[in-house]
Write a structure and sequence with these properties.
The protein is an alpha/beta fold. It has helices at 25-37, 57-71, 86-98, 116-127, 140-143, 149-155, 171-181, 195-200, 215-226, 230-239, 241-246, 254-262, 279-291; strands at 8-12, 42-45, 77-80, 103-107, 134-138, 161-166, 186-189, 205-208. An eight-stranded parallel barrel has the order 1-2-3-4-5-6-7-8, surrounded by five helices. Helix 7 (171-181) links the parallel strand 6 and strand 7.
Length: 296
């Protein structure tokens, strides 16, 4: 059995931008501090929600360095270093490790994709070159690529492959994954609306977007699951389901950055090709936040 990277809630943190498009590091630090103050258990930097796809190499590494230095060991830092180019993923992962990241998040290759055999070769190539744990990221809606259970089971044999962020939305797949892999690999929900189902099957927590807006509530929901209080966790899952859903009313992270701006944070805009939310969706999101007393 491998060491668990974290149990609870990890926030896949946004990257705040200034008006000129540069990274707003001061605001990033403020958001991270607020997350930790509200019991968030880990921070994912430079993931999909952090708009890593539009970052330069220098920005990507500097954001990881900044997060590591600013967090200063208070919670684990998980760095997104996935790519559809294996050599680049290896290089970026080694840079993240050198910058002090506690773990890596690696998405399945997108666009060029690969076979299941190729997935095994890709992830093992990265795992062989680092000495920190890896979280595999299965999100077929974005990549067009799904990891077979047998593929994960094979990858779980590697000492550095420790967990899966499971965002297929297929609870039957999650059940089979945990049944086949057992304690060889940890499973985190990659969907905020499926935390309780995934954890009822043995998941260790969630890598969350909604925790930007309701960090303490998301932490408490997961903690209820960890405490085997699924009745209370279920109530919270249903209570906050509208927030979880409305934060994906348009392509992530468009809605969550809009929500953070509504809450008074300086999240700034998204980078193209992501554009501003429609007025209709803004009104719906604002109404949901107001319903929960998060804004007036």
């Amino acid at each position: 059995m491998k060491n668990t990277i974290f149990t609870g809630t990890a926030t896949a943190i946004i990257t705040p931008f200034n008006a000129d498009g540069s990274v707003n590091y001061d605001e990033l630090g403020r958001i991270i501090d607020d997350q930790i103050a509200n019991s968030t258990d880990a921070i994912v930097i430079c993931g999909t929600t952090g708009e890593s796809a539009t970052m330069t190499d220098e920005e990507h590494i500097e954001c990881i360095r900044y997060a590591v230095k600013h967090i200063a060991g208070r919670v684990p830092v998980i760095a997104g270093t996935g790519s559809n180019d294996t050599r680049y993923a290896v290089a970026l992962s080694k840079e993240a490790e050198a910058a002090g990241a506690d773990a890596l998040l690696l998405v399945t290759p997108y666009y060029n994709k690969t076979t299941q055999k190729g997935l095994i070769a890709h992830f093992k190539a990265v795992a062989d070159e680092v000495n920190i744990p890896i979280v595999l990221y299965n999100v077929p809606s974005r990549t067009g690529m799904n990891m077979d259970v047998a593929t994960v089971k094979e990858l779980a044999k590697h000492k550095n492959i420790a967990a899966v962020k499971e965002a297929s939305g297929n609870i039957s797949y999650v059940a089979k994954l945990i049944a086949e892999c057992g304690d060889d690999i940890d499973v985190y929900s990659g969907n905020d609306d499926m935390i309780v189902p995934v954890m009822s099957l043995g998941g260790k927590g969630v890598i969350s977007v909604a925790s930007h807006v309701i960090p303490k509530q998301m932490h408490d929901m997961v903690q209820c699951c960890l405490d085997n209080n699924f009745a209370e966790a279920m109530k919270m899952q249903i209570e906050y389901l509208d927030i979880c859903n409305d934060l994906f009313i348009e392509v992530n992270p468009i809605p969550v950055k809009e929500a953070m701006n509504m809450l008074g944070w300086n999240a700034g805009p998204c980078r193209l090709p992501l554009v501003e939310m429609t007025d209709e969706h803004k009104a719906k999101l604002r109404a949901t936040l107001a319903k929960h007393g998060l804004i007036k």
